[in-house]
Amino acid sequence: MKKAIDIIRKRSDLFFLILLLIIGLFYNYQEIIFKPPFSVHFWRQADCASIAYNYSQHGMSFFKPKMHNLMSDNLTTGYNVGECPLIQYLAAILYKIFGFKDFWYRIIITFFYFTGIFALFKICKLLIVDLFWSCTLSLLFFACPNLVFYGNNFISDIPAFSLSLLSWLYFFKFYFNKNQKHLVISIMLILVASLLKATAGMNLIVIVLIFLFEYFHVVKFNDKIFSKIKIFIFSIIVFFAITISWYLYARYYNQVHQKTDYFLLGIWPIWSLAKEDILDVLNGIVIGIKCTFIFLCYIYY
Questions:
Q1: Are 182 and 174 spatial neighbours (Cβ–Cβ below 8 Å)?
Q2: I need a labelling partner for 258 at 20 to 30 A (CA). Which of 2, 72, 193, 210 fits?
Q3: Both 195 and 56 in a single domain?
Q4: Burial class of residue 71 (count of CB atoms within 10 Å of its CB; 0-12, 13-18, 19+)
Q5: Cβ-Cβ contacts under 8 Å for 182 (sequence gap 6 or more)
Q6: pLDDT in tens, the chain (301 residues)
Q7: 210 with 230, same domain?
């Protein structure tokens, strides 16, 4: 028994990946991965799948995405875009190489999802060390119905979420070893995540707040985190330049094709919600803060 435990500890990464695959089989991923868009959020899944298919069938011009839904240019074309279609373009490349199968799109999303959970596992190993709790806390994500459903779906939320987790893995590596390369990789991963889903940019806000807290001595860390400020600021500038450029282009692209209200490219402020919805959002924030506080207390003590 002790020998088996020692082997698991030495091969913990491989052991965790095997557990992921086993749980994926339990959730019937091996069958779902061959299916076209279906079930909840069907229309949004179909939009993403349609953009990928149109790329592969009607030219691979990245900056001219379109769908089968003819709602633009006086209902004559499907030229429209929201988030940056990086995932759709990657799927289209696979369609070109291997032929059109929904499998290729789903396998991309699944790969990102498993990578994200694996990154969370590595973060837990860095912060709490204990292998059992690192596995348990990470695998709990696979118990969330929303993540299980969207984890091998067609929507870009999961890749954005997974890249965010991966970015934090590199940030914590930077925190411990002070390697500036890891900080730059972390910010670039957040950049790609933000292009896929603008809300992923909140990850960068947290990192900037950590920088400001340290710079203005609001919080005193054991070791100085940001020693090379110029590299950090340059990375931030690149992030905002590329992110803002894409969303400005997307807005322009939709305006040119006379359809600006299909994808949400603006903001949906909390004050536009009904009172009951606002209270639900605030309650969710409070619960999230409580859970984070409990987790941090566990790690500290």
A1: yes
A2: 193
A3: yes
A4: middle
A5: 170, 171, 173, 174
A6: 566 566 666 778 888 999 999 999 999 999 999 999 998 888 899 999 999 999 999 989 999 999 998 989 998 999 999 899 999 999 999 999 999 999 999 999 999 999 999 999 999 999 887 888 889 889 988 888 889 999 999 999 999 999 999 999 999 999 999 899 999 999 999 999 999 999 899 999 999 999 998 888 887 777 788 988 999 999 999 999 999 999 999 999 999 998 777 876 666 677 777 888 888 878 888 887 777 667 666 555 5
A7: yes
Residue 145 and residue 294 in one domain? no
Q: Are residues 300 and 198 in the same domain?
A: no
Q: Are residues 153 and 284 in the same domain?
A: no
> How many domains is the chain built from?
2
C-beta of residue 163 within 8 angstroms of C-beta of residue 189: yes
List phi, psi (to 5°) of 79.
-70, 110
Q: Is 101 left (phi over 0), alpha (psi -120 to 50) or beta?
A: beta
CA angle 274, 279, 283 (to 5 degrees): 150
Evaluate if pTM is beyond 0.85: yes
Q: Residue 104: which of 152, 156, 39, 38 has the closest Cα?
A: 152
Residue 123's domain spans which residues? 2-266
Question: Residue 277: CB partners within 8 Å, gap ≥ 6?
Answer: none
